[in-house]
Specification:
The chain is an alpha+beta fold. Helix content is 34%, strand content 24%. Adenosine-5'-diphosphate (ADP) binds next to helix 1, strand 2 and strand 3.
Length: 323
């Protein structure tokens, strides 16, 4: 199958937004951003064997490649609008493309994001998505902005994806509900788009947890010129991780594991309770895990107040260290 045929298959399944006068098929797409909104742009690459296993299902790759980008838009408080897809494929495999698009569409359609262009090349499997979103001018959530006295919060549960990876690396084949649920968290992360919107005008700083809680909160601390104190016993944990691992493994996954794609954010303490009940109505749980202090860095303490140390704070490319 030729590159043109692959692109035709992709084009046949793209579209769905009125603000795309020209999508796939020309040299570039034409998009119409609404007045009063800022364009929010991000880009993330997934490489086979690094970001997903070589034998990953095509649909899972399509889902996750989009999910990691939507998570970045969520962390900015943006509404998804348009996406560009750059694919390097070892062979022109129509089955792979259809599976990939099944996973991509399963997330793109409910998120309201339209595929408007991309590039298709020959090479080791790699997927790069550029996602474009919209936010009312001046309303984007940023890493800078955390204030001393803010509470630090996180959505959902932490450590599920890291636990799933741990099981995968140990080739645990068990198909119990707990193992399945964790695998789902790793392969099909749910970007926190509704939460990102709810945080507009309320959170002082936000980030998505992609590399590990300590590492990602470290970015907020640095950008905001503050310190962050976290309480280990407050970190939210799923019943699935708790069913499979002891406390010290769990804490390690929660603090340093990547790939959860929850949002971590800070806000004045008086805003927490109303936000929590507003979000509970949408099925999104948020938990207070610490507070912002004067100083620098992120410190995690146990119930006795003793500082806990980890060998590394999260996933970093080129360092060779993984969570
Ligand atoms: P050009 O040579 O001008 O870069 P291409 O032949 O690469 O054009 O692409 C033709 C059209 O198909 C363009 O509109 C491009 O955005 C789109 N396209 C190519 N690859 C992809 C892809 N993987 N996903 C979505 N659109 C794609
Ligand atoms: Mg091209």
């Amino acid at each position: 199958m030729a590159e043109f045929d692959l692109i035709a298959r992709i084009a046949a399944r793209s579209g769905g937004r009125a603000d795309v006068p020209l999508g796939i098929g020309d040299d570039a797409a034409l998009l119409v951003p609404p007045p009063g909104q800022q364009l929010v742009a991000c880009c993330d690459t997934l490489n086979a064997g690094v970001h997903f296993p070589l034998d990953a299902a095509a649909a899972d790759i399509g889902w996750k490649a989009l999910a990691v980008n939507l998570s970045d838009l969520a962390a900015m408080g943006a509404t998804p609008a348009w996406a560009l897809l750059s694919l390097a494929l070892p062979e022109a495999d129509a089955g792979f493309i259809e599976g990939f698009l099944d996973g991509f569409d399963a997330l793109a359609t409910p998120a309201g994001i339209a595929l408007v262009g991309g590039d298709t090349t020959h090479g080791p499997l790699s997927v790069t998505i550029t996602a474009l979103g919209l936010v009312p001018t001046g309303m984007a959530l940023r890493r800078a902005g955390a204030r001393v006295g803010d509470v630090v919060c996180v959505s959902g549960t932490l450590g599920d994806a890291a636990a799933a990876l741990h099981l995968l690396q140990r080739q645990v084949e068990a198909d119990t509900p707990a193992v399945q649920a964790l695998r789902e968290r790793l392969c099909r992360p749910q970007p926190r788009l509704a939460l990102g919107l709810a945080l507009r005008g309320k959170a002082n700083a936000a980030i998505d947890v992609s590399d590990g809680l300590l590492a990602d909160l470290g970015h907020i601390a640095r950008a905001s010129h503050v310190g962050i104190e976290l309480e280990a016993s407050a970190l939210p944990c799923s019943m699935h991780v708790a069913a499979l691992y002891g406390a010290s493994h769990v804490l390690h996954f929660q603090a340093t594991g990547g790939d959860d794609y929850e949002l971590a954010f800070t806000l004045p303490p008086e805003r927490f309770e109303s936000l929590q009940s507003e979000l509970a109505g949408q099925g999104v749980g948020i938990t207070r895990i610490g507070h912002v202090v004067a100083g620098s860095g992120v410190v995690l303490r146990d119930a006795q107040g003793t500082r806990l140390h980890f060998g590394h704070q999260g996933w970093e490319h080129f360092s060779g260290a993984s969570a």
